Amino acid sequence: MVKNTWLLIILLYITPAMATDVIPIFKIRQDLIYNSGGIQNSYTKMSVIDTGIEYKINKNNTVLIEGEYANGTNPNQYIGDLQGISNITADDMLRLYKAFYKYKHNNITLRFGLMDINDYFDTNSVTDYFLSPSAGFAPTIAINLTGIPAFPLSSLGFVTSYAYNNNLIMCGIFGGNGEAPFQNIGKDGITYALELDHRIKISNTKTLIIKLGYWRYQQHQNLYQLLGPTSDEWYSIGEYKTQVSYANIDYFIQVSGTPQTNNSIPYFISGGVKISRFSSIRSKDIIDAGVNYINIRNQPHAETQMELNYVIHVDKYVNVIPDVQYILHPGGCYPNSLVTILRIRYRL
Which of 39, 94, 215, 238 qualifies as a cystine partner to 80, CB 3.0-4.6 A? Predict the structure, then answer.
């Protein structure tokens, strides 16, 4: 604890003295959630606040520190679904969320420190404003592996990437225990990740992006119940971005699998569309629509989640997002559920 405190003091007070550019980080996300169906009808709230500073020491070196506060009620306990309906759902907490060093030189980027693995792996740009967690992070990882270092968890790790032509190669190693990232470093568990991205410019108005990835997760056998089973996962993501005379229309599809019998979610498929710049009057508003499907072992049904939302751009700081989701067979066994969410986002 003392070592961590001194490290934080060094990052907060000594690094800015060397920095040429200091960027504040401040984000608020507030969800008001009403559920009809599932286990029981409910009304819940969830809030997450992120604050920190990004220090740009020079053009090659950056340090980022970010803390996170979460408070609210988990709506999934009333719906019974496994995928979740809000990507800010978390237990009440106040914690150091990110603290890492970034080095960039030409086509090579290195990062080391406390990070969220989903900032770099198994993510796509089309789903930025979707509220469903599955639209941004495959449940074959998030549900099967509860200790994985992704929101609201993080862990110490190392990520390196190399960009060349229209390709990007990323590989990373992370501590496998996001519940306690500074305890027994490297001994409680290890997560390995590899991803290859390829961009194809079809025309001036059409671009295709293909991502192929692989995870390997293993943990100390005594932590099986806490962190999830040792397993492998593959995933693929496709993004197709087009521009037409009246709008930008971006499509995505994602498929992932963890076929080992010790995983409760063996397969996942997701797809959707983002429509932007469809109005000259509301040029920054966005419409999102998508479907997420998971196969669940030992349950009579699969779980299917459908989402539709409208992103209202109030100003450069504030977005308001009315969101509707309909869930078929939450958890594979509960009655269907209709969920409405109002999200308010503030970002400095």
Answer: 39
Q: Which domains does the chain have, with CATH numbers?
A: 2-347 (2.40.160.180)
Q: Tokens at residue 140, please?
A: 């074959």
The whole-model pTM stands at 0.89
Over residues 277-304, the mean pLDDT reads 94
Which tens digits make up the pLDDT trace of 119-153? 999 999 999 999 999 998 999 888 888 778 899 99
Instruction: Answer whether 326's CB lies under 8 Å from 318's CB.
Output: no
Q: Give pLDDT tens digits for 196-244.
A: 999 999 999 999 999 999 998 887 666 666 556 678 889 999 999 999 9
Q: How far is CA 2 from CA 6, 9, 188, 319, in A?
A: 6, 11, 21, 40
Residues with Cβ < 8 Å from 142, sequence gap 6 or more?
Answer: 133, 134, 148, 150
